[in-house]
Design a protein that fits this description.
Elements: E1 9-14, H1 18-29, E2 34-40, H2 43-53, E3 57-60, E4 63-64, E5 67-68, H3 69-79, E6 84-89, H4 94-102, E7 107-110, H5 115-126, E8 131-132, H6 134-152, H7 160-170, H8 175-182, H9 186-200, H10 205-216
Parallel strand pairs: 1-2, 1-3, 3-6, 6-7, 7-8
Antiparallel strand pairs: 4-5
Helix pairs in contact: 2-3, 4-10, 6-10, 7-9, 7-10, 8-9
């Protein structure tokens, strides 16, 4: 019996390398229950195609020619929150992992995984589960616990304005966007952010966002 359209997991491929997309399409086409409905090679293409095709799962690379896959993820989910984004990438650095998860991604796996593992990951995120590659999970969690513990030891409380800046950083906003939202100059936002970093004993925006999210739980 053939599977109906409703039973298929509809997948959008986002990678700037055509060879990678061709390979993924070939692998996924061999498995019942999956269908590749489209491809994109850029951040702009990903957001436009996702809006048009409404896939169930997006296989997304972190680095794209015109921007970040993380930013694309954030934009797509803002419009289509039911879409599940699974990052498939070669980059296992802590910033990439945490920013992807904070942007709402359901999974983060490395391109070294075998095809069977990839298929399982796609099915998992389609079912609403979260997937992190074992190669990045332990290190990312240690990093998160480490800086959060250090920040918790800080006796310096954030001011109300610093709290507002931190919340907007956690939303993925740029300094310019934060300045516009709070009716401040770019320089003032930069100074507030420097103060937040110093008080929390952190050095990167991803750490600030992760601290904010962790504190809400």
């Amino acid at each position: 019996m053939t599977e109906t359209r409703a039973q298929l997991i509809r997948v959008l491929l986002v990678d700037d390398h055509e060879v990678v997309r061709v390979g993924l399409r070939s692998v996924l086409s061999q498995h019942h229950g999956l269908v590749v409905v489209g491809e994109a090679a850029t951040m702009a293409g990903a957001t436009a195609t996702a809006g048009k095709l409404k896939p169930d799962v997006i296989l997304m690379d972190v680095r794209l020619p015109d921007g970040s896959g993380v930013d694309a993820c954030r934009e797509i989910l803002a419009v289509s929150p039911d879409v599940r984004v699974l990052f498939l990438t070669s980059y296992a650095d802590d910033d990439s992992v945490l920013t992807a998860v904070l942007a709402g991604a359901r999974g983060y796996v490395l391109k070294e995984l075998d095809s069977a593992s990839l298929i399982r990951a796609i099915h998992a995120v389609a079912e609403g589960r979260s997937i992190l590659d074992p190669a990045v999970t332990d290190r990312a969690l240690r990093w998160l616990r480490g800086f959060a513990t250090g920040a918790d030891r800080s006796d310096n409380k954030l001011s109300s304005q610093e709290e507002r800046v931190l919340a907007l950083v956690a939303e993925g906003k740029t300094n310019k966007e934060i300045a516009s939202d709070l009716d401040l100059s770019d320089k003032t936002v930069k100074n507030y952010l420097a103060s937040v970093f110093q008080k929390l004993r952190i050095t990167r925006r991803a750490q600030a966002a992760a601290f904010f999210v962790k504190r809400q739980t």
